[in-house]
Structure formats: structure tokens, C-alpha cells
Amino acid sequence: MVSAAEDPVTLSALQHWAYCPRQCGLIHLEQQFADNIHTARGQAVHHLVDTPGYEVRHGVRVERALPLWSDRLGLIGKADLVEFHPDGTVFPVEFKHGAKRQKMHDDIQLAAQAMCLEDMLGRPVPQGAIYHASSHRRREVAITSALRDLVAEMAEAIRAMLRSGTLPPPVHDARCKECSLKDICQPEALTALSAQRALRVHLFDPEDGC
Fold first, then answer.
1. Does pTM surpass 0.70?
2. By three-state DSSP, how is residue 99 classified?
3. Which of 37, 108, 116, 174 could form a disulfide with 68 if both were Cys (CB 3.0 to 4.6 A apart)?
């Protein structure tokens, strides 16, 4: 069990860390955020399930905006939607904008929701789904041991970052194009600066015979 003295890691932080640790640090360590078309679309999708409540469909109880937590893992957050089936099956569903396609950072967030539900309810949650709003299709996700290990590892990595107060270094790859924090992060400038420093060390290192 995680120390009670530490604040729990939010489920959204796991998704941000899995996408890019620096993005996670900017949001959850430095409290910086900015919108773009992708975040606006995501917010529009989540408005569908932001209001807590429930309904029963064909015998299945459907809970919206359900609070989640795990003292064992030190996690807290909420599930967009959780289905409680008559046979005892518990099935979390995470809403995302965009077409149906696999994204590891989404799967990790869903796995964390499943693990919280297991700890809260004392029953296994072996599967969940990502609902892709653009295509109106679900993608079922098995909550594997590999995903569970990643959840625990990333939660601890985020705690270590928050303890240290150190922002992770920038990356500069295809992820940056869709990131709303690109202008704040400035990945091109910072990665170029790091490369220049490394080049200077190499050029003027006396052990290289220069």
C-alpha cells in the first residue's frame, strides 16, 4: 500500500505519462494546460458522461462518472461509464474521440480503472472497452498482467517525479504535433539545445585529442 502521506496519483496522470512523461509533468507538476482541437474534441465527448447518474438497460446497470480509487496503488479518479451486468460482470468503458484504433496510453488508463474497481468491489475485472466516438464503435481491451504491471510502474514513476519536482526532459517526435502543450514545452528548441551541448563537449573534450 502506498504511504498515506502522499497524495494519490490521478488516473488522467497515468494516461498523460503513458503518452509523454513531459506532458504529464507540465500538467500535474507545473499545473500548465492549453487547449487545441484535440482536447476540445475530447472534452465534447466527455460531456456525454460527465454527469453522475445511472440507468438500467436490458438488465444492465450503467453508472456514469463513477468515482474510483485504490489505496493499494495510490490512485484516484473516475470512470466515464461502468456496466454492472446481472451475472456479476463489471465492465468499465472509457470514452475517447477519434476513430477506432489501439492506443497504449488509453489502454493503460482503462486498466487502471479496472484495477481500482477490483480493489473497491473485491471482484475480478478482466476486460473493459474504449468507446471511440467518431466511429461509434467499442474496442474491447483485455486487462492483461503486462498492462497491470505498467500501471503500477507508471504510478510510481509519477510519484517519483512529483517528489523530486523535476520536469522530465522533452522529446521531439510525432507525438508533439498533436500535443496542446507544444508551445509551452518547446521541444524543438530544447532538444536542439541539448544536442548543441553534447556537440560542444565532444568537440572540446581534451581526451579526444582536440
1. yes
2. coil
3. 116
